[in-house]
Amino acid sequence: MRISPEMIDKIKMVAPGTLLRRALDEIVKAEFGALIVFLDDITAQENILQGGFYIGAGFSPEKLYELSKMDGAIILDESVSRILAANVQLAPDPSLPTFETGMRHRAAERMARQTSKFVLTISRRRKVITLYFKNQKYQINDINTLHARISQTIGMVERYKSNLDKKALAIERDEFLDQVQLIQVTELINDAIGIMHLLEETEPYVVETGSEGRLLVMRLNSVNDDVDTLLHLFVKDYCRQPVKPFDVDRMIDKLKTVKPDDHERIAQILGWPSTGETSLHDLIVRPKGYRLLHQVSKIPPGTVDNVVGQFNDLVNLCLADEQALLEVEGIGEKRAKSIIEGIQHVRNRSMYR
Fold first, then answer.
1. For the segment 36-59, what is each residue's pLDDT rounded down to a tens digit?
2. What does the alpha-carbon distance between residue 112 and residue 92 come to, in Å, rounded to a whole number?
């Protein structure tokens, strides 16, 4: 199930390493229950909030722990800097739907639905922290379970990434032979999108580990950055018409909505006419050279666009001599030699791997 960015922000608020999470862990350990509502303006919800003690004290984990010994709700401001009230009774609209069974959790879910505010509960018996925001619900996982789940996902993602790299290298070899089939491109993009979906689904669990998951976050971010870069370069290389960076981002957003293995739809988004999936094997396509230039030379994006605009595709770029490259705006003698030597190195690596 996809978790919204808004709920991910709430998960960050209770992640290990935060003062709020320290208080919540102490409450769980003491086997207390708790109902915490995050509001900046109590007066705006005065018809729902009944009784209690209005405090207005600065927040600390110790204070929150002590106040959780009372039965009612605790009100914190949304920045978790002040405790506004405690032992407050909640009276949300009873007609609002809820699938919860316990009174505390039913009140929390209805409160979140009615006010569109963040509410959390701690179950005294089950020792579980549950988050509610608008119509969404998320249950905090045991940290050991999280680490096991994320480690398993990382292993899977890294295997998929290894296969993706192999496909990219096979395409690279065929590029120098001018034999790339469009189906090869759509298959690679399909696999890259699949990895990105898997990473997106893992994000809430990674966020939930907080300060205890730094190494896991670094590994996942490394894979995500590599796949994102590869995907952007392939889209720029193989879209039928030249596109600007903003257009590439929009195309990738569209590609993320495509059903798995719908290669014809991927080709359509890249600008190729709909002629049936069989013809994707027959259609030979040429890259524009963005990925090659990314590998061989550290030149500004604007200058890369100038080079691609001058030579149109990789075949023409590979045939260009130093003099032809010097005619491109932003290319001097040093860069021209670097591009020629880099292309030769990549060609040799591809052919003799």
1. 999 999 989 989 999 999 999 999
2. 9
Nearest of 186, 267, 263, 173 to residue 231 by alpha carbon: 186
87, 72 Cβ separation under 8 angstroms: yes
Which pair of structure tokens corresponds to residue 156?
A: 């899977």
| Two tokens, residue 113 | 């639905």
- Residue 282's CB: how many other CB atoms inside 10 A? 11
The pairing of strands 129-133 and 136-139 is antiparallel
From residue 315, alpha-carbon distances to 1, 174, 247, 254, 308 in Å are 44, 11, 24, 29, 11
Q: What number of CA atoms fall less than 13 Å from residue 84's CA on the CB side?
A: 19
Tell me: the pLDDT tens digits for 243-258? 887 899 999 999 999 9
In this predicted model, what pLDDT tens digit does every residue of 309-331 receive, in sequence order? 999 999 999 999 999 999 999 89
Six token digits for residue 133: 């925001």
**Residue range 169-182: mean pLDDT, rounded:** 93
- Residue 271 has φ and ψ, to the nearest 5°, of 100, 5
Other C-beta atoms within 10 Å of 261: how many?
14
Please write down the HEC assignment for all residues of the chain. Answer: CCCCHHHHHHHHHCCCCCHHHHHHHHHHHCCCCEEEEECCCHHHHCCCEECCEEEEEECCHHHHHHHCCCCCEEEECCCCCEEEEEEEEECCCCCCCCCCCCHHHHHHHHHHHHHCCEEEEECCCCCCEEEEECCEEEECCCHHHHHHHHHHHHHHHHHHHHHHHHHHHHHHHHHHHCCCEHHHHHHHHHHHHHHHHHHHHHHHHHHHHHHHHHHHHHHHHHHHHHHHHHHHHHHHHHCCCCCCHHHHHHHHHHHCCCCCCCHHHHHHHCCCCCCCHHHHHCCECCCCCHHHHHHHCCCCHHHHHHHHHHHCCHHHHHHCCHHHHHCCCCCCHHHHHHHHHHHHHHHHHHHCC
Query: The tokens of 266 are what?
Result: 């991927």
Joined together, the tokens standing for residue 79 give: 């920045």
